Amino acid sequence: MILTMLTLPQVSPVVDEASPSSTSSFEMLDMDSVPPPYQVVKPHWFFCRRADDNTSWLPFSREDSEKLENALGEKEDVVVAVDGERYDVRVKERRRYAVYWDQAPSEVRRCTWFYKGDKDTKFMPYTEDFSNNLEDAYMIAVTLDEWKRKLEFPSGETVILHNPKLIMQYQPIGLQDEWVSSPSEQTRPRTVKRGVDNISVEIPDGESEKVDHLVFMVHGIGPACDLRFRSIIQCVNDFRSASLSLLGTHYKRGQEDGKVGRVEFLPVNWHNALHGDATGVDEDIQRITLPSISRLRQFTNDTLLDLFFYNSPTYCQTIVDTVASEVNRLHALFKQRHPEFTGAVSVVGHSLGSLILFDLLTNQKTGSRESNRERVTCDDPCPLSCDSLEQTLIRLGLQEYLATLQRENLDLESLALCQESDLKDLGIPLGPRKKILDYVRRKQVQEVKHSIAKGQVSINYPQLAFQPQTFFAFGSPIGMFLTVRGLKHIDPNYTFPTCKSFYNIYHPYDPVAYRIEPMIVSEVDLEPMLIPHHKGRKRMHLELKDSLARMSMDLKNNVLGSLRTAWQSFARLPVAALPPEPESSSVPAEETEEREIKVGMLNGGRRIDYVLQEKPIESFNEYLFAIQSHLCYWESEDTALLLLKEIYDKLGVALEQPQQ
């Protein structure tokens, strides 16, 4: 770490004593050319990221860097929102603070000079004081056209300005012998560069200020969300980055026309609340944990026990309350920071997080006038638990039509099958007809809700502050849990009270994922929808597998004509997964018929189960990649594109065919 300079460095000319290690990297200049006039270096702002023992400095986008630079001259400590307004920078304090989640503040630096050692992979920025001293020496050297200047800093560092393109830094190693005079003999030199444009660093693109849609992402079991043991915050950052990249390739025209801004993804963390000091559950579990195989037992306590906690009324209430309150808190904070936002909101749940959201959405109330009547059961003129047709009609004030219905041998069960036209044919007027049909509808809705909630832990489910547009489940065990709870069939008419779209997305080798559609449509064996590759076609090994399957079928069906037919089948180009026509669907033509099959109303009559395409290496051993498959969604561009397509289809913006 470079120490902050308290005094100016000593500047002196350098004797021609360059060692081979430094002369080998000299970049020769045309010394006869006229030196360019001095120009002030253009600064760029960076922030520090510390992970374990590693420290890295990452650049802000050019837009954010300019905002920070413009705020530098303010007298008061200005707060600048950066990174899509997910962070605030206190400029004078030089600290970057997270807005939506708990995270230690990180150091921010206005960077102009950088260094890199022989073993370093990236350039690191000097402190601002050190950089200012270097810039002063560089200005003098350029102005006077005097090079080979040596700067000796009080902390022991020595920097030699050989020429405008070759500047080296030497660090002392302990106490030096008196006869060691050459700085190159003291230590391996560092390469020094001036300005961010002269180093190899990828400066991120700035994010659009226009947010089209907001998505909350709920994690599954354990504190880590992938094989690198990263937090939900880091994984959501990856998903957001993939989304921004895909918007630039698949919605480029929409961006140019101002129709497409961006989608904001925010993480929802519930694990800390469950395992924190408030519940004390970790201490209780630790007291009864055996001392053997401690690491494995610790992993089990941190992760797998979350499944058991969710089936406990005490801790299930804690989990559900935490998820709902955190989502509502984030939603309110986002609206406060983005008062112009008028878009819809969706939710994503991974693994156990998807089950939490499923149960939460199942128990939401719409707040509409109709649902309010369902809610106030004590004052309802006809409770939905009426046992007979006569009781029902009496409480509805329609007992005069009892004889009419009994003449047709109608009871409550058969009445539920009647259409309005049937009641009209019986001579029942419009008003009574509407009352009867409204009662039947409410009774059906309640029965379906009771069947879905069958087996759920008996707790009080909190209400969300908004009605989600779409619910996306990643690697979800919802189907398994519903079955274990005793639910064998989901009524095709069932929808979430406040959310009308639902996608069950999974990797084919994910050991935790289960399907939903067979629980709705049991009489038809439906294959899941294949999620298109984000580059617009099937993966090559899947195309080959399909071609070989067609060849095998051709050989079985027609031996004599198989060779020609098989060759045509093998050579046939696959149908583009992402069509060139903006108004067309992104699903291959051979799946169009399947897409039109009704699979209930859980996703508005559309397909629910969507499967990712495995990578070629994964197909060699599905068991080897099983765990990785359950954690792949955070970095899956195919998954991110499916979400974007669903979101922007509802906004009337078509997906574009990427250029091959």
From TrEMBL:
Ranges for the WWE domain? Answer: 30-110
Per its UniProt record, what InterPro entries does this chain match? Answer: DDHD_dom, PA-PLA1, SAM, SAM/pointed_sf, WWE_dom, WWE_SEC23-DDH2
Query: What GO cellular component is one of the record's annotations?
Result: COPII-coated ER to Golgi transport vesicle
Ranges of residues in domain DDHD: 464-649
Q: Which domain of life is it from?
A: Eukaryota
| Family, similarity comment | Belongs to the PA-PLA1 family.
Q: Which PANTHER family match?
A: PA-PL1 PHOSPHOLIPASE FAMILY, PHOSPHOLIPASE DDHD2
Q: What is this protein called?
A: DDHD domain containing 2
